[in-house]
Every structure is written in structure tokens, then in C-alpha cells.
Write a structure and sequence with these properties.
This protein is of the alpha/beta class. The chain is built from 14 helices and nine strands.
């Protein structure tokens, strides 16, 4: 019999994850703070829950994919939180990009309920979520991971166990720190190209095929040129991730100076109204200044 699954959070990533779970045949309960976003999944076989606790009540694996520490806390805790509805032996999976500090607190709360927690944020954005090609960066008990593996495999191309609880959360912040810094340096470089009069297409061809080239540079430069900013990864969330990265690195005595610079540009773009656009919109303050 297929494992029962609950998925809490149906934003940019959660919708694609839910569809892949349904496609794989898992009985699925979903919860979203804005109920209208959940309704289309009902036609595909999902049960729409009224609260996180309601979604969790029969689930063998309970996943959360929300925006930040505060959203995760409200999803898991309190009278209607998923912890209050979780059954014995359920595996909890926090796939949001949150701080290791909150993961440690959540793991302790889970332990009080005799439940295992995996911190398993993902690499990839909307396209990978839709295609079931995410990579789970996982921390926690290996035995718990094996119990959750069939569920995670339905949404991913790889599942990496990095170490004890908190390892996945920390690795995700390192990953997003490097991405955020590269995106802002690309924004500055592309603005420089545009103002200088260089042929933009030729200049980007040099960069894409040269030492700076990467899958991220290729994808983000195309979005910056198109300037449509359909959301693959929310600008406001990258801004948050850079802030979290600095906080966590500081606990180890590391000052992420490049993250400070990158966060400043993302914050400026958010103030100009681009917070709910794709993170590639970080170039816009440079185009208008």
C-alpha cells in the first residue's frame, strides 16, 4: 500500500511537488494558507485540508514547503499545527529554506512527540519542481530517510544525505549564498554591458562560453534580457536567504561580506516593487539608477 503523504505549502515549488506525488500514486492531503491555490489539486485526487493538523492526521510522511522560519513555525506548531495532528511513526520533512537554528528547535519539538525530523531543502526552482528533478539536501536519521525515500524520490533526481539534523539546512544556505552573489554580479556586469554600448548578445555569448559561464548565468541572463520576470525563484526569498546565510555563517565566525553587498541590491529591488518577481529582476535598480 502506498504511503499516505501530506504536503503543507503550495507556492512556486509546492504545486509541482504535489502534482508529481499524485502522478506517482501517493494518496495526498494538501494544505495552503490561501485555500484557492489548493483547489485545482482536488480534481487530480488530492484531499484539501483545512489546517496543517488536518492534513497531517493520516500521513506517513509530512512535508512542509513554505517561505521562512516564521511560516514554518506556524505550520508545524500550535493548536492547528502539523505536529498536533501527526500520527505515531510519521516522518516529518522540512523542505523549506530555513535556518539551522530553527531546524534544531523543530527537531527537539518533534522528539517530544517521538517523531523523526529530516531537514531536506531542495536545489532547483519551479522548472525542476514541475519536472520532478529536484535534489534533496538532507540532514537527519538515515533510517528515517529510508522510510521517506520513496516519497522524496517521486519529486527528485537525487537525494543526498549530508549528515545529522541541520546539515541540509546549512548546505542549502551555502548553495543559495553562492547563487545570490553570482546573480548580483551578473546584474552589475550586464548593466555595465548595456550602458557601454557593447553588443549585448555577443558579450553574453562570451560570458556564457567562457570561465564565468554556468547553468545559472545562462538561465538568469536570458531572464534579465527578456525582462518579463515570470517567477522561477522569488526575489524576496533570495533576499531572505542571503540574510539567513549571514546569520548562520556568523555563528562560525565567518563574515560573508559579498552576501552583504548582494543582499543590499536585492533589498533595493524589493523596495522598488520587484519582491514578488523572479530574482533576475535584481538588475532593475541598476538599469534605472
Amino acid at each position: 500500500m502506498a504511503q499516505q503523504v501530506a504536503l503543507l505549502g503550495l507556492g512556486t515549488m509546492g504545486i509541482g511537488m504535489a502534482k508529481n506525488l499524485l502522478k506517482a500514486g501517493f494518496p495526498l492531503s494538501v494544505y495552503n494558507r490561501t485555500p484557492a491555490k489548493a483547489q485545482p489539486l482536488a480534481a487530480e485526487g488530492a484531499r484539501i485540508a483545512k489546517t496543517p493538523a488536518d492534513a497531517a492526521r493520516d500521513a506517513d510522511v509530512i512535508l512542509s514547503m513554505v517561505s521562512d522560519d516564521d511560516a514554518s513555525r506556524s505550520t508545524w506548531t500550535g493548536e492547528h499545527g502539523a505536529l498536533s495532528g501527526a500520527k505515531a511513526n510519521a516522518v516529518l520533512v522540512e523542505s523549506s529554506t530555513v535556518t539551522p537554528e530553527w531546524i534544531a528547535e523543530l527537531a527537539a519539538l518533534a522528539a517530544k512527540h517521538n517523531l523523526d525530523l529530516l531537514d531536506a531543502p531542495v536545489t532547483g526552482s519551479r522548472v525542476q519542481a514541475d519536472a520532478g528533478q529536484l535534489i534533496f539536501l538532507t540532514g537527519g536519521n538515515p533510517a528515517a530517510l529510508e522510510r521517506a525515500r520513496p516519497v522524496l524520490a517521486a519529486m527528485s533526481k537525487d537525494i543526498v544525505l549530508l549528515g545529522p539534523t541541520g546539515s541540509g539546512a546549512r548546505m542549502k544556505l551555502i548553495n543559495n549564498f553562492l547563487c545570490g552573489v553570482q546573480v548580483t554580479s551578473l546584474a552589475e556586469g550586464l548593466a555595465w554591458i548595456e550602458r557601454s554600448g557593447l553588443d549585448r548578445e555577443q558579450a553574453l555569448k562570451v560570458l556564457k562560453n567562457g570561465a564565468p559561464g554556468s547553468p545559472l548565468l545562462g538561465a538568469i541572463s536570458d531572464r534579465m534580457v527578456a525582462a518579463t520576470y515570470e517567477v522561477n525563484f522569488l526575489l524576496s526569498l533570495m533576499n531572505k536567504d542571503l540574510h539567513y546565510a549571514q546569520r548562520d555563517a556568523a555563528t562560525l565566525g565567518i563574515d560573508l561580506r559579498t552576501a552583504k553587498t548582494a543582499e543590499a541590491l536585492f533589498s533595493e529591488a524589493a523596495r522598488l516593487g520587484f519582491g514578488d518577481k523572479d530574482m533576475s529582476a535584481v538588475i532593475e535598480p541598476l538599469r534605472t539608477s
